[in-house]
Amino acid sequence: MNITIKEVLLTLLAAFLLYLTAVGLGMKGTKKKPGDGE
Predict the structure, then answer these.
(1) pTM (2 decimals)?
(2) In this structure, are residues 7 and 15 in contact, taking their beta carbons and an 8 Å threshold?
(3) What is the pLDDT of residues 7-28, one digit of tens each?
(4) N or C: which end of the chain has fewer CB within 10 A?
């Protein structure tokens, strides 16, 4: 398999966006700081 730098960066970017979305929704839904008691 030939993985290019571009593919790696795109994968990291997609994962980062998913992470931000999850954190944003979690903060909106619970009104808690991330990692607070969970």
Answers:
(1) 0.57
(2) no
(3) 999 999 999 999 999 998 887 7
(4) N
6-37 burial by CB neighbour count: b if 16+ within 10 A, else e? Answer: eeeeeeeeeeeeeeeeeeeeeeeeeeeeeeee
Instruction: Show the 3-state SS of the chain.
Output: CCCCHHHHHHHHHHHHHHHHHHHHHHHHHHCCCCCCCC
Backbone angles phi, psi at 18, to 5 degrees: -65, -40
Cβ–Cβ under 8 Å, residues 16 and 24: no
Contact between 23 and 34 (Cβ < 8 Å)? yes
